[in-house]
Amino acid sequence: MKWLRATLPAPEPLLEGDMLLYPDAILEPELLYQNLQSKVSWQSGEIRLYGKTHRIPRLQCWMADAPEQYQYSGQSLTNTDWIDELTDLRDELNQALGTAFNSVLCNLYRTGEDNMGWHSDDEPELGPSPVIASVTLGATRGFAVRQRGATKQHGVLPLPHGSLLVMQSGMQTRWQHSLPKRKGIDLARINLTFREIV
Ligand SMILES: O=C(O)CCC(=O)C(=O)O
User: Fold this and answer.
1) pLDDT digits (tens, 9 = 90+) for 59-117
2) Which of 3, 48, 152, 187 has its CA 20 to 30 A from that of 88?
């Protein structure tokens, strides 16, 4: 099954080209959203911060060719088997973007209460200047960015159902991002970040 538009429209460059937004990139976003909700083995993880264990405010699942474990933002993720939808979409993205993605981190934000804190995706496993493709399905949520070293938010980009955001090679060294809580959202959102573990 094809999930990515064969010809992507010209992207909207943001942050001086560190991010490219393709608002309508996924061909059947509703079908992909439903399939992922039911087929991905969503897990509830824990994180240890300052000696205390906290439940992560979202569900997640990590699929990769290798390795067994991935250290990500203070947690250790265990590899699960790929599902067909995501190997298809990974291959289409690699073809369209000239990337070599070999893993995907899936996040399920059940309601507007689920969120992700400020971080850069700068784990050593990703190499010094990773390109990351981020696909959004379901609820539109704001993707917040701020400069690394800053405390003030630079802006918030709403990511709609079926969109593709490509974080280019300079993004993780210059910027941090987060997915803040948003009141009054009952619809779930799925985010897929395709990465290359080098
Ligand atoms: O859900 C999002 O759009 C952000 C996901 C993210 O920051 C990540 O997977 O590192």
Assistant:
1) 999 999 987 777 777 777 889 999 999 999 999 999 999 999 999 999 999 999 999 99
2) 187
Identify the structural domains of the chain with CATH numbers, from first to last. Answer: 12-195 (2.60.120.590)
Report residue 12: phi and psi, to 5°.
Answer: -90, 110
Q: Whose CA is nearest to atom 9 of ligand 1?
A: 193
Whether 86 is in the pocket of ligand 1, judged by its Cβ within 6 Å, is: no
pTM of the model: 0.96
Using an 8 Å Cβ cutoff, are 77 and 121 in contact?
no
Distance between CA atoms of residues 162 and 139, nearest Å = 10
CB 129, CB 162: distance < 8 Å: no
Q: Is the C-beta atom of 60 inside 6 A of ligand 1?
A: no
52: which 2 tokens? Answer: 């205390």
